[in-house]
Structures are given as structure tokens and as C-alpha cells.
Amino acid sequence: MPATPSRFLLGAAALNAAAALLHLGCIVFGAPWYRALGAGDAMVRLAAAGHPRPALFALAVASVLLVWACYALSGAGAIRRLPLLKPVLCAITAIYLLRGLGFAVLMPYFAGNSLAFWLASSGICLLFGLVHLLGLRQRWRRM
């Protein structure tokens, strides 16, 4: 009998997919969504002017997040095993945790973002990272 899929990695997949959909929403709904989701002023201005850069950036981020969702589903045991499953899931987890904990290092490079953005987005990334970490711990031997 196959093992029960990991609830944490299924949750991680859902979180990644939801974040991807939010980024795609920015493309569809434009500057107000970029602003609401914390994009810097320059990115919001470019989106309002119809420049393609914000949409391309949002599409790239959404694509990465959807790939991460697939890896979480694979790690959960819900879909077939993807290549390099353990190292990729470890890297995804590390990226989220580092982003969640290391925002102070990144802040000077993105001066257009508010402190509220940094605190909220870092908390979200930390949550995502912890869910991934719990899922990895739960399924490590079966991957």
C-alpha cells in the first residue's frame, strides 16, 4: 500500500501555487496589484505605464513558484518523483528560510519597499520555509 502523502508538503505546494497565482494576478490586474503586494514604486510606475518589465518579472517569479509547487507535490508523494528531489527541496526550503530571516541584509538593495512590506513578506517566507522543513522532516526517508 502506498504511503500517505505528507500534509506539510501538500500544504507547501498549495502555498507555492497560491503565491504564483498572486504574481499572475499582478500581470492581469496591473499596477494596483503590484502596489498591494509590495512592489517598489519604480515597478508600480513601470506597470502603470504599460512597460513589459514588471509582467516579465512577475511571470518569471510565478514560473519558479509553480516549479517549486511541483517539487513539493513530488516530495509529498502525490505525483511521480522528480529529478534531484531531495537537494531541490532542501534548496527551496533554505531559500525561503534565508529570505525570511535575512531580510535586513536585502533591504538596502530594494530601497523602494516599505518596512511593512519587509516584515510581512519575510514572515510569509519564514512560514513557507517552516512548512517545507516540516514536510522534509516528515518524508525524508521515503524520498
From TrEMBL:
<keyword id="KW-0812">Transmembrane</keyword>
<protein>
    <submittedName>
        <fullName>Uncharacterized protein</fullName>
    </submittedName>
</protein>
<feature type="transmembrane region" description="Helical">
    <location>
        <begin position="54"/>
        <end position="76"/>
    </location>
</feature>
<keyword id="KW-0472">Membrane</keyword>
<feature type="transmembrane region" description="Helical">
    <location>
        <begin position="116"/>
        <end position="136"/>
    </location>
</feature>
<feature type="transmembrane region" description="Helical">
    <location>
        <begin position="88"/>
        <end position="110"/>
    </location>
</feature>
<keyword id="KW-1133">Transmembrane helix</keyword>
